[in-house]
Amino acid sequence: MEKMEPSRQEVQPAACKASPPYSLESLSKKHCQNQGNLLHFDRQAPGRLTTSPTLRRLRSRGCGSVRGGARGTATAHAPPQHVALEVRTWCDLQEYPGSASPLSNKCPPESEHIWYVCVDTSRFYEHRRSSVVLNLPGLEVFPGDLLVSAGAADYLCHPLLLLNSESKKPRWPFSKRGVQGKDKNKHISDLEDCLSSLKITDFRDYEFHTLKIFMNTLKYLQTHEYLLDVDLWRLFANLEELSQTSFGFVNSLFHIFKDYVDICETSPSLDFISVLTKYFRGSLCQSHQTYCLNYSAAVFYLESLKQRHDFGIYLKWCEQHDQCRRLHLPELLVAPLHRLTRYPLLLKNIWKRSTDSTEKIMIYSIKEKVEKAIQDLEGKVKWLDNFQKFRHLQEIVVWPPLWDRDKRFFIPECLKHIFKEHMAENILSPTNRHLLYEGKLTLAESTRFLDVYLFLFDDFLLVTKTKRNKKVKKLGGSDPGLMCPSLTAELQTVIREGGSCTVIDQPIPLDRLLVRGLDPLHVSVFGLRNAFLIQHENRYRQCIAAFLLQAQTENIKRTWIAQITAAISRFTKSQETKKLSSFPLPAEPSGI
Amino acid sequence: MEAIWLYQFRLIVIGDSTVGKSCLIRRFTEGRFAQVSDPTVGVDFFSRLVEIEPGKRIKLQIWDTAGQERFRSITRAYYRNSVGGLLLFDITNRRSFQNVHEWLEETKVHVQPYQIVFVLVGHKCDLDTQRQVTRHEAEKLAAAYGMKYIETSARDAINVEKAFTDLTRDIYELVKRGDITIQEGWEGVKSGFVPNVVHSSEEVVKSERRCLC
After folding, report:
1. Which is nearest to A432 in space by CA: A457, A465, A410?
2. A572-592: string of b/e by CB count within 10 Å (b at 16+)?
C-alpha cells in the first residue's frame, strides 16, 4: 500500500490580495522581526473567514462585499452560502515579487510541503481568535478545512513537521520530552489553548467534510507540536486524496446537470455517462479501496489512542462541533465505506430509468465494475486480516523443543542441533491453512486445572497453554496499536502482557481426532461442568493423547463440539476429493 | 427540565438485498414510500423520535445496510455499536428467509461482548398472493431464536410503526432493568439530551456532561 504522496512543490505562502494591510511582503518581514509585533487585526476584513454569527450578520448587512475566488475556481464550485470565502492560489504569487518570504526560505526546495497560507493575524497582538487558511495545491478550499491561528504560519515550513515524509517526522512520545506531572497538566492546558485558537468553517454537505474536520484539526495540532506521535496515515489513510477525487466527481456531475438546465436548447442530450465513466473507471474506486483497506486497522488504532488524555481532548473538541451531529470519530470513519457500497445501488437506479439502449449497457458495465471493485476489496480485506492474524500467531505460539515437551527424551547438548525445528513459520503460514475457530478453555489434568487456548485450523487442532508475562514486555506487544484487530480479545490481552501460547502437545490432525461431549451426570462426580473430551489417535487408531476440556458455559461447549465436528467432516471430504481428482483444484475467486 | 429524549438507541436494519430495508426505514422516518428506491449518498443514518409512553421519548438512530450485504468483512465493525436490529426477509422470497439464520450467526460473532436485540420482520406483506413463507413457520423460527415476529409493508404502511416501537420498547425495558447499560465507548445506548443548555461552541465545552435521566 502506498502512502499518499503530495505533489512536489516549493512552499509559497499565498498572498492576501484583497486585504492590503496583510500583504505578504509586510507579513513576512514582520514575521522575521518579531512575532509579537504583528499586524492589526481587522475582524471585519472581507478576506477573513469566520463562523461568528455576529460577523456574518454584519457582513450580510452590506459591509463586506462578496468576493469571488482568484481564478474563480473554488468559489465557483461552492454552494451559494459559502460566498464569504476568499480563495487564493499560488498563481497569485506571481504577481507578488516580494513573496520570497523567510517562510519559504526556511524550507528546503525539495521539500514536499504542501501548505498554502493565507494569513490574517492577531494572535500575538490581542487575545482574540484569528484565522489562517490552510490550503492545498488542488487550488480549492474544501469545506471543513481549518482556519488556524496565525502562529501556525511559523511552524508550517518547519522540516520536522512535514507530515507526509515519514523519515523526517519525529516520533516523540511525550514522556521522552519530560511531560510528566505538573508539566503534563501544563501540556494539556496548552493543548486546550491551542485548540481554542482554532476555528472550522461551517460548510456542510461536502465530501466527507466531518472527517476532514478531524484530520485537519490533528494536522493543525501537529504543526503546533502536539500529538506528534499520532500517525495521521494510520487513522485517515488517503482521506485527503479520496475527498478530492469524490469532490471532483460530484462537482463534474453537478456542472453537467447545471449546464443542461441552463442551456437546454443548445445541448439536448445530457452527457453524464462520460463523467461516470471517467471517474468510475478512473481513480474513484481505487481511492475508496485504499481507504477501506485501512479502515479496520484505523478503528483499532483509534481505540488504542483513546486511552490517551491529550488525544481524548482533541477528539472531544472535534466531536462537539455542530457539523459532527453528535457522532463520534469511529462512526464517521465508516462514511467512505458507505459511500462506496451505495454507488452500485445508485447506478442501478440510473440504469433502470435510462431509455437509451447503448446508455443502458454503459451504465450497467460501470455498475458491474464498481461491484467487482467491492468484491475485490472484500477479498483483500479478508486476506489481509488472515495474513496479519497468522503473523501474530507465529509470534505468540511457542513450540518447545522435544526434550522440553517430554522429559523422557534425553538429548545431549551435542545432538540438539539435529532437532532444530522450523515448525512455527511453516505450520502457521497463512497460505497453507485457515483458522476456523479458537478460544479459551480449561484443561483438567490429574492434579490441576490449566488455562488453555485452542486453535482449530482447517486441518488440525492445536492445544496451547497461555502464559502471562507481566514483567517483560515484548517489543511487538508494547504498542497495542500495532496489533491485529481481528485477534480475539483474549489473545490481545496475552500479547499486551507479553505472554505467549505454548504448545502442549503435537498438533492433532483432524482425521485422527475424536470429539465427544460428556454426559453431565458422568462428569459432575469429578466437579467438571460443560466438559468434552478430545482424543488423538495414531495411524493405527490407538489413542495417544486425550484432553478433558471444560467450557465456561454449556453453549460454548456445544459450539466447540459443533465446530470441530464440522471441520472434521469438511476435512475428510476435501481429502477424498483430493484423492479422486488428479487435477488441482481451481483457484478461488478473489471475493471468497 | 424535561428531556427531549431519554435515550438514544442505535438500530441496524439487516437482511438480504432487495428485501426492502431502505423502503422500510424511509417509510418509518419520512412517512413515504418510494417506488424506485433512491439511496441517498451522504446520508449514513436516519433518525426519528419515538414516544414509548406519554412524555417518554426515545431517539432512534437507524443505520441502513443496503448495498453492504456482500461486503461484510468490512462492515462488521459497526454491528457492535448497535443495541437493536430489524432482521428483514421478504415473504415472497423464500431464499431471504432461509438466510435469516446466517445473518443471526454473523451478527452474533461481531457484536460481542455487547448484546443486540433483534426483531424478525417479514416484509412486503401486502403481496400476500405471492407469499412463499407462511406466518406460522416464521413465527416458529423467531421463537427458536427468542425474537418477536412481525409482518410489515412499507408500501401500504402496515405495522411499520409497530415494528420499530415494539423493538424500542423491548430495549427500553432491558435498559430500565439494567440488563443493558450505557457504556463508555459504546454507541448502542446513549443518555438523553436536555434542551436550552447549549448555545454556542464555547458553552458546549463547559456543559459537556449531559443529563443522565
Report:
1. A457
2. eeeeeeeeeeeeeeeeeeebe
pLDDT (mean) for A494-522: 86
Which amino acid is present at A228? Answer: L
Which residues of chain B from 104 to 163 reach within 8 Å of chain A, CB to CB?
113
Residue B73: list chain A partners with CB under 8 A.
378, 381-382, 385
Counted across chains A and B, CB pairs separated by less than 8 A come out at 77
**A488 close to B (CB below 8 A):** no
Does A296 sit within 8 Å of B39, measured CB to CB?
no
Architecture of the domain made up of A186-394: Up-down Bundle (1.20)
Distant-in-sequence, close-in-space partners of B156: CB < 8 Å, separation ≥ 6: B126
Domains and CATH numbers, chain B: 5-189 (3.40.50.300)
What ranges do the domains of chain A cover?
Answer: 186-394, 427-470+484-578
Strands A199-200 and B148-151: unpaired
pLDDT in tens, A433-463: 888 899 999 999 888 889 999 999 999 999 9
**Interface predicted TM-score (ipTM):** 0.80
Residue type, A393: L
0.80 surpassed by pTM: no
Residue B39 to residue A342, Cβ atoms within 8 A? yes
Ligand-binding site membership of B126 (annotated)? yes
pLDDT digits (tens, 9 = 90+) for A314-343: 998 888 887 777 677 887 888 888 888 889
Closest CA of chain A from B87, distance in Å: 19
Q: Distance (Å) from the C-alpha of residue B32 to the closest C-alpha of chain A?
A: 18
CA distance B142 to chain A (A): 19
Question: Considering only CB atoms, which chain A residues are within 8 Å of B78?
Answer: 331, 334
Domain formed by A427-470+484-578, architecture: Roll (2.30)
Q: What is the pLDDT of residues A519-568, one digit of tens each?
A: 777 666 667 888 999 999 999 999 999 999 999 888 889 989 999 999 99
